[in-house]
Amino acid sequence: MSNDSSAWIGRSIYDLDTPCLLVDLDILTANIARIQQASSAAGLDVRPHIKAHKTPQIAHLQVRAGAIGVTAAKVSEAEVFAAAGIEDIFIANQLIGPTKMRRLVALAGYVPRLSVAVDSIVGARQLSDSFSRAGRTIDVLLEVDAGAGRCGVPAQQLVTLARQVSELPALRIKGLFAYAGPAYKHRGAEEFARWAAEEAASLAAHAATLRQAGFDIQVISGGCTPTAGHYQPGCGLTEIRPGTYCLNDRNQIDLGACTEAQVAATVLSTVVSTPTATRVICDAGSKSLATQLGNLSDGFGWVYGHPEGVFYKLNDEHGYLDAGPMTWRPRIGDKLRIIPPRICTCLNLYNNMVICSGERVMDIWPIAARGANQ
């Protein structure tokens, strides 16, 4: 599909060729507003993770709603969003190697507020050496492991890391952060609120320890989509970094973090074959829906409005829909909207997203950071 939207505006989404990625603008903006308002009421800044949408137009919607900036996973993502005018970017990932260092130094030349993650003295030295040679400094946030078992130093090593980093000439310790992965072990608003309070209190305690050791900790960054909207005033954090909340997906439905009515992103697909009474084949396979990550949802896609319609198998170009439990049987030529299990990986398969309101096309936005994996 061409990025030229003029021929499509006002037409029905069911006129579109398939498979294609649809994003409902009304749901998208409502999702952004809901989390922004809840976070502002709790006294928290919002720094959305753009890996969930990779689309500058959405980032600008988030900033206009009140977000202070964005979170990126990769230098290449940050480059795309900086070129699109985003002026405050935190790269919440460990950056290692001379190529990334060169790109990061160049990026710092035109991003007014740029910060990066650090969880080792090795990575910190690479940053400091590179920025020292360029005559620059950069803000860093120390990453602590909050139970996700991924990156981040154990809490008992945090002060030691801070002291090591503080001795490096080109780095300024701005704060600390953690990935709120353990939130995904919980279900429903009550559990999310309880864990959000525990997460925030833990990070605030780590920040207090660093302050007692003499460090000026300005930023305490946490959160994720399941906990977004569940923090209370004075919780201990200064900002949250949710990502999926703006688009949502089946995983978030199954967690209890959203309803189907709050899912903004779906894949439009055409029924191409009905070989048996229950097996329906669509033209959206693994190249259009990606594959399931984790074990939150038992399937590869769900028919929007008919959650009993589950895609139980994917080939490259084919999606296998079990129509047995459905109250109606899709026919060849029917177009179905499919909720993917995980939108972050799904949208990275598309060059564009079709922006719609209900069933009408509003615009076509390029997914500008698609494939920005370095």
What would the keywords be for this entry?
alpha/beta, Lyase, Ornithine Decarboxylase, Chain A, domain 1, TIM Barrel, 6-stranded antiparallel beta barrel, 10 helices, 29% helix
Characterization of this structure:
The structure is a single chain. The chain has 374 residues and is of the alpha/beta class. The protein has two domains: 13-21 and 257-366, D-serine dehydratase-like domain (Lyase, Ornithine Decarboxylase, Chain A, domain 1); 27-245, TIM Barrel, CATH 3.20.20.10. Helices cover 29% and strands 23% of the residues. It is built from ten helices and 17 strands. The chain has helices at 25-41, 56-65, 75-83, 98-108, 121-133, 158-166, 188-212, 250-255, 286-289, 343-347; strands at residues 20-24, 45-46, 70-72, 88-91, 113-118, 138-143, 171-177, 219-222, 239-240, 265-273, 279-282, 302-303, 306-314, 319-322, 335-339, 352-357, 360-366. An eight-stranded parallel β-sheet has the order 2-9-8-7-6-5-4-3. The longest helix is centred in the middle third of the chain and has 25 residues, at 188-212.
